[in-house]
Design a protein that fits this description.
Distance between the termini: 9 Å
CATH topology: Alpha-Beta Plaits
Helix content: 40-55%
Radius of gyration: 12 Å
CATH superfamily: BMC (bacterial microcompartment) domain
Shape: globular
Strand content: 25-35%
Low-confidence stretches: none
Strand order of the largest sheet: 1-2-4-3
Length: about 100
């Protein structure tokens, strides 16, 4: 599992992320201001687990980022304020 924190993401970064998120999830996320985005790359089963842990640990929203290899490695984006995203990522990393 790879984990990265993007602090103060640019508009271009957020547009790139949103363009790779499913329409229903994108609609839920659009229009919000994000202080940070956490990225978790892993197998799909681990990402579902990480999304559940992250949203229970902090006030964040999660969405799967679609890529080229949906059967093996995908990415989860965790959106929220910097401290909330950091808390969620710490919980994900510490729970494994």
């Amino acid at each position: 599992m790879k984990i990265t924190l993007i602090k103060a993401p640019t508009t271009s970064f957020l547009e790139m992320m949103l363009s790779n998120i499913r329409p229903l999830e994108r609609k839920r996320l659009e229009g919000s201001q994000w202080g940070a985005v956490g990225l978790v790359q892993a197998k799909l089963i681990d990402l579902y687990w990480a999304a559940d842990i992250a949203e229970k640990a902090s006030t964040v929203q999660t969405a799967l980022v679609m890529g080229n290899c949906p059967q093996h490695i995908q990415m989860l984006a965790i959106f929220g304020k910097q401290e909330a995203v950091r808390t969620a990522l710490d919980k994900v990393q510490g729970s494994r």
